[in-house]
Amino acid sequence: MISMFSHAFMIRALVAGSLISVCAALLGVSLVLKRFSMIGDGLSHVGFGTMAIALAVGWAPLAVALPVCVIASFLLLRISNNASFKGDAAIALISNSALAIGILVTSMTSGLNTDVTSFMFGSILAISETDMWLTVVLAAIVVSVFVLLYHTIFLVTFDEQFATASGINTEFYNGLLAVLTALTIVIGMRLMGAMMISSLIVFPALSAMRLFRSYRRVVCSAAGISVLCFIAGTASSFYLSTPTGASIVVANLLAFCLCAVLGKLRK
Fold first, then answer.
1. Cβ(15)–Cβ(59) below 8 Å
2. pLDDT digits over 122-146, tens only?
3. pLDDT in tens, 138-184
4. How would you classify residue 60: left for phi > 0, otherwise alpha for psi between -120 and 50, otherwise beta?
5. For residues 245 and 127, is the Cβ–Cβ distance under 8 A?
6. How does 56-88 read in b/e, with b if 16+ C-beta sit within 10 Å?
7. Mind giving me the DSSP string for 140-181?
């Protein structure tokens, strides 16, 4: 472990990844309970397609992907409210189209394969000091939102109709969750990759739900499980020279299986 912390890029990756894991877990609990967990997968594909186009044109990929993914998150919410075109179909349509466009742009533009591969599959070496500070700001915003608006988010998550009848602007809070999810996805893609980042939203929430029924306990335990799995996956990636994103996903899978067994034993 000492050798792992002796590298500056590993320290940046651990700090950024731990904060991204916390953000994704907090947002993931509400998204999973609202049956909209696949928004992470859709936004990650949109982010990949946007970054591929930005690299081909010569623009800053992060500066382009952030606003595009925020707009896409609102579009997904708007389409999902349409009775004739539900959320899962909207996500499949937008995400697959964006992924296909990104792959086509990559294949038609020379010199992009290395940069695009890091966005698709993630890379510890891709985390810069700027990315680390971006995650610090993002984590501060996400944690502050959940602490200050905890009761409102709880109500909107479990009973949106009652929240609306109580005078709460549910569209605003749904949009807020979507925007924070888009920011988390785009910033986290540098480390986890577009193909793996959505797992940080789904796995910790599902693992925590196997153990607890209280919303507060699920939220807190999901954040803890997410950070522990990230550290375990990153350490195994460092010592075994395995892909970072895949190693973290496998760690989350093992944690889910363990939580499922423990949940059965408790019953």
1. no
2. 777 778 888 899 999 999 999 999 9
3. 999 999 999 999 999 999 999 888 999 989 999 899 899 989 999 99
4. beta
5. no
6. beeeebbebbbebbbebbeebbebbeeeeeebe
7. HHHHHHHHHTHHHHHHHHH-HHHHHHTT--HHHHHHHHHHHH
